[in-house]
Amino acid sequence: MMRLGPAGRRIALLLGCLLATATPWAGAAENAVDFEDRVIRMVLPQEPPQLDSSKATDQVSTRVLGHVMEALTRFDGQGRLVPGVAERWEIRRDGATFWLREDARWSDGSPVTAADFVFSWRHAVDPKTASEYAFILQGIENAEEISQGEAQITSLGVSAPEPRRLEVRFSRALAYFDKLVAFATFYPLKESFYRARDGRYGADAEDMLFNGPFVIERWDHGARLEMAKNPHYWDRDNIYLNRIEFPYITADTNAALNLFKDNRIILAGLDSETMENALDQRWRIERFNDGSAWYIEFNHREGRLTQNWHLRRALALSFDTYEFINRVIGTPGNLPGLSLYPSYLQGAKQRLLQEIPPPEPVTDWTLARSHLEKAMAELGLTEPPELVLLTGNSPTANKQAEFLQTLWKDALGLTVRIDRQIFKQRLAKMTAGDFDLVAAGWGPDYLDPLTFGDLFASWNLNNRGRYANPALDACVRDAQNSVDPEARVRAFGCIQRILLDDHAIIPTYERGQIYVIHPAVKGAIRRQTSPDPDLARAWLEQP
Amino acid sequence: MSAYTPRPEDFAPLGAQDAAPVLVRPSLSYWADARARLLRNPRAVGSLALLALLGLFTTVGPLFWTVDPSTQNLDRISEPPNLSAEALLIDRGQRWPGVEAEGWPSAPDPAWLASPTRTALDAPEGLSVVGTPHTWSVRLRWSPVENAAGYQIYRNRYRPTALNELGLPLGDRWSGAEVSYEDALALEPGVYWYSVTATDGLRESPHFQTLRVEVERALPLNAARKAGLLAPGDGEPGQRLSLPAHPLGTDYLGRDMLSRLMHGARTSLFIGLLAPLLYVLFGTAYGAAAGFFGGRADAVLMRLADFVVALPFLLFMILFRVASGVEAGESGITAILVAMVLLLWPATARLVRGQILQIREEGYVQAARLLGAPQRYLIFRHMIPNTLGVILVTLTFAIPTAIFTEAFLSFIGMGVAPPTPSWGSMCFEGLKSMLNSPHELFFPALMISLTVLAFNLLGDGLRDALDARMRARE
C-alpha cells in the first residue's frame, strides 16, 4: 500500500532556482500543447524505477503504467467502475468470472487472453518475484501460501478455461474484487514475451508489451519519456491524443510552476506559497481530493504512556480539526478529519460517511485537562509527561508539528519533542515503534473502504502503533468476509466507532490539493487512486 | 668687543636643580595608543556602538518587550509589521447549520439532463452575506438555480471578470438545495470577492455571481480571555478590542517576530561568542607551546593540528550530534559548541605559533635570555603581549564565522529544537514564505548581517589599532 511521503515537497530551493533558470533551454521549441499533432507535455516527479507491473509500488510507475496498460476493469472520470479488458463480470461469494472482450489486443497485435492474466497474477505472488504488492492478491485461493513458499505457484486460484474467460476462486469473500482488479498488480503480462526478455521486462521501452491506450515509444532514463497512441487498442476511436510526452523529470514544485508559466507543461501542483503567485497570474485554479486521510497515530506498545486512554482522550479533546485545516494548513480543498474514512468513499447506497455519520469532533480544553489529571493519576505521574512526536521533514509537516507542540503545551502543559525525519527514516522509526505520536497519512489502493478499514487490524503490518483490539479485529473480519453491502457498511461503522471511542488515532484532515492546468486541455482526470493524473482520454479544445 | 667680567657668583656651586624641562610628548603606552587610534576610527566606533545596541537588545530588550516568543496566535499569521490592530469580539457558538432551499430538488431533472440541447445553467441570484463577515467566518447564501446538482464557491482578492479569475476554489455543494457556504479559510482583514457557479453534475456553468465582502478582524471571546486581553466575564460580542501591536510583524504561526528575534539572539550570540572564545584560547595555548618549545614537540603538535584541519567540519558536526546522544527534538546547541571548539582551533594555533617563532628570535628576547630571565618571564613579559594583537583580531573575525555556522546548522535543521528560536532557524522558516511575507526572512537576515558586519568592522579597526608598525606613521 502507499504510505505517503511528506507531501512530496522537499524543496531544495537553491536547486530549484538553478533548474528554473536552466530548463527553458532544454526544450526551446516544445510548447505544453501541440494542437496540430495532438500532443501534450507534462512533468514526471521522478524517473520510474522500472515498469514491470507485477513489481510496481510507487505512484510514478503506476501513473505511467495506467496510461499504457489496461486491467480487467477501470475507473472513469466520474469515479465509476467501467469495463476494461473484461466485457462483463460476475462476483460470487466463493469466486468470480470475467469474460474478456474479443478485440483486446497487445501492442504487437496479438489478442489479450485470460492466460495472460493467469501468468501475471501467478508471477506476482511468486516468492521469487518478491513483489511488495503480493499481499494485495490475498483472498484469492492459495495466494498467501504461495507467497510464503508453502504451495505450488500453479495452485493459485485463477484459471483460464477458455481464452476469453477468466475464473477466480476466493479463499475468503472479496466483495470489492471488481474494484481491486483495476490496480496495477492485476495488469496482464504476456508470458512468451516476458520470458523472452529474460529478466529485463519493464527496464526499457523495447522490453515492454502494452495493452492500454498508449505505448511507450521513447524512454531516456532520467531525462525523458514519450508515449504514443496504441494503434491496436480496442477503444482507440475514443482516444484523442496522439502523444503524451514527459520532457522533464523533477520533483521540485517551484520548477514545475516555472515550466507551466513558460508554457512548457500543461499541469503544475500548487502549495500555499505558489498559490498566491497563481492568483496574481490569473490562472484558473483547480482543486481535488487526493484521497489520503491524515491522522496522528499513537504508539500502543507495552510501556508507552500513550497506552493510557485518558491521555489519548486529553490530546484528542484539545485538537480542533477545523482550526487546523483553515488556519494552519490554509490551502483550499482540505476537509476536516472526522473519521478514518475519507468522505468520497461509497457505502451501500450513498457515500459511506452519510450512512455511518461520524460524531462531530469535540474540542474542550477543560474536559481535556480533567482527563489529563486522571491519566497522570493512573500513570503515577506528578507532572504532565513529555512525549515525542515523529514527523516528516517537509515545511508543511514541520509547521503542523510546531502547531501541535504549542497547542498541547498551552492546553495541557505537556511538553512535546518534535522528531523530524526524512521519509525512509520516519518509516523505519515507525516500524521500530520509536515514537509516542506520529503524524501519518494513508492513500487508498483500491476504492473500497476496506483499504482504510483494515489498517488498524492487529495483524496489519502498516499498523505502526501496534494497536490491538479483538473487538476491532472482529469487525475487520466481518468487513472482509461479507459480500452483503449493508452488512459491510455496518462493519465499517463498527470499526469507525471503536477507533474513535478508543482514540486509537486522532484524525487530522483529509488532504486536498490545488493545481493549475492548461485551459485547452479537457477531460484530465484527477483521482484518489493511481493513475493520477490520468490524461489517457483527455482532449484539446482550441481557446 | 667688550670682555665679560666674571663675578664671584659665577663660581658658586649650582646646588639642587628641578628636573630638566620636558621636551618630549607624554609617554604613551601601547594600549592607550591603540585605544586612542581605535576611537579615532569612525567605522570601528560605529560598530562598537552597534554591538552595544545589540547587547542591550538581547539582554534588556526582553525586559521591556515581554511578549512570549512561542505564543502562537492563529488569528494573526504572517502579519506584516504593524503598530496597532483592532478586533471585533465575537461569540463562537454553534457551528452554522447552513441554509437549505425547502422543497427544492437536490438533483436536476433526468429528462432535462439527457436532452442534447440543454443550455448552461444560470448564475445563482441573490448572493449575500449572512451576519457580519469577519476573519473567523464569512457566511454566504444564494437562491437555488433550476436544475442545479451543486454549486462551486470561489474567492479572490480582486474583482473577477472572467472564469479564470474566480480565484481559489474554496469548496463545493453536492446538492441543488444546499444554498449556503461558510468560509473560514485563512481569512485576513480586507476585501474579498466571492463567486458562486452552479453545476449540473457533469459540467460547471460558465455564468457566475460575484459579491464584494469586506472582512473585519475578529477575535472570539474565549480566545481573548485565554490570551489575557480580557478579564474573565468581561467583554461582550460586538465590542471592539485593541490588540497587541507587532512592530516587526508575526511569523507563520502568528508568533511575535520582535520577541523571537530577541530570544533568538541569545542562541546566536551564545554560540557566536562562547565558541570562538574557547577555541581561540585553546588555539593560543597550543600554538604558543608549539612555537616556544620548538623542535620535535613543535613538529608533533603541528602535525596533529594539520590532521584536525583535514577533518570535514560538517560531517564531524553531524557525527558529534549523533554520538553525544542528542535525542531528536532536543537542542543540538551543546553539540555545536563542542564540535566547534574541537575542530576550529588549529587556525589560531598556527597563527600564534608563527608569531611566537618570530618573537623568539628577536634581539630583546635573546638579551633577556642572556641576562638569565626565567621562561615564565619571557612568556608573560614578551611573548603574550606581542601576540595579543593577532589573537584579538582572530577572535573578532571568528565570531561572525561562528554566528554564521550556527545560523547555517539551524538552517539545515541541525541546530536548535523548536520552538526555541534562533536567527538561523528563523531565516530557514522565513525563506519558505519569502514571496508572500518577506518580513519573516528580512528581519532575522538583517540581524545576522548587522552583527556579522559589526564584528568584521571592529576586527578591522582593532587590527589597524593594534599594529605597532602603523603607530610610526603618525
Q: Which helices and strands appear, and what pairs or packs with what?
A:
The complex is a heterodimer of chains A (543) and B (474).
Chain A: E1 2-3, H1 13-26, E2 33-34, E3 39-44, H2 59-68, E4 73-75, E5 81-83, E6 86-91, E7 95-100, H3 114-125, H4 143-147, E8 158-162, E9 165-169, H5 177-180, H6 191-196, E10 214-220, E11 224-229, E12 243-249, H7 253-261, E13 267-270, H8 272-280, E14 285-298, H9 309-317, H10 321-329, E15 335-336, H11 352-355, H12 365-379, E16 386-391, H13 395-412, E17 415-420, H14 423-432, E18 437-443, H15 450-453, H16 470-481, H17 485-501, E19 505-517, E20 521-522, E21 539-540
Helix pairs in contact in A: 1-7, 9-12, 16-17
Chain B: H1 30-40, H2 42-59, H3 61-64, E1 85-90, H4 110-114, E2 128-134, E3 137-141, E4 150-156, E5 168-173, E6 180-183, E7 190-199, E8 204-215, E9 218-220, H5 221-226, E10 240-243, H6 257-293, H7 295-310, H8 313-323, H9 333-344, H10 346-360, H11 363-370, H12 375-411, H13 423-432, H14 439-466, H15 468-471
Parallel strand pairs in B: 1-9
Antiparallel strand pairs in B: 1-10, 2-3, 3-6, 4-5, 4-7, 7-8
